Protein: Amino acid/amide ABC transporter membrane protein 2, HAAT family
Organism: Ruegeria marina
Amino acid sequence: MTRETLFNAVLGLGLFAFPLWAWWAEEPFMITLSTRVVILALAGVGLNLALGLGGLVSLGHAAFFGIGGYAMGILASHAQSYTPLMEFPFVIEGTKSMPVIWLVAVVASALAALVIGALSLRTSGVYFIMITLAFGQMLFYFAISWPAYGGEDGLSIYVRNSFPGLNTLDPIQFFLICYAILGAVLLLSARLAASPFGLALNAARQTSERVETVGIRPYRLRLTVFVISGMITGLAGALFADLNRFVSPSMLSWQTSGEIMVFVILGGVARLFGPVAGALLFILLEHVLGGLSEYWHIYLGLLLLGVVLFARGGVIGTLAGQGGKHG
């Protein structure tokens, strides 16, 4: 067992054990804080697939995060008000069922990622970054100007959505749902990276010309991973909105895209548990330093600068005694 694998196991078990202790100690806020870490880590895992495997620096992943959130908000609000979502050409009702909401969030995010990726991937480098950012901002301002679902004020959902056989209003049960999803997505990410698709994508990231000479189109590889990445981030958005029982345009903002990227960079780009370590560190700093000063982002910026300059492998790479995975 490598040091990185050992650290991943300790991190995963610790993230599972802490909320159980908080549940035993009757500290529901700590359980909610842990759930927030898990959901944000899930969003980071989505971006890490595009960034770590495909080398795609996207500043528009908040678009998928927000689409997932609004999918939850719209469906739940119509179920809450007993009004149909659509009556023509056939009636579509709202729903409070989490599995149905997740499916809608994933499909909507996949379609958005397909359109955004198909256009953005015709460019590269800084142009790709700016196009993804532009798409994210377009959706952000669309949400602000959408009064039917709260506009700038956002949309509140008064009761958390349901999951068959579980009480989602119980913080520990909702945490376990989110933790199970994160575990499944991490397993999918690991399998994907080790698959022929992942190996071809990694080769395309390093040298596109060599991949093209053997008949593989890098564009298709990158578009596929971009769509998968968007789907995972959209699912995280739906869970995040359910956690807060609120969705707002801020979920679509470029600041949210930046935060998701910070999780990946802090933990380690292309490291399997990198986004988990990054999200945990981010929430820890927010919780501890946020109580001392409203300008706690200064310390986060200094930490991020130190990671970029001296620990290119992020927290996990440093603790594993390895450098940056991609230099």
In short: The chain has a mean pLDDT of 91.
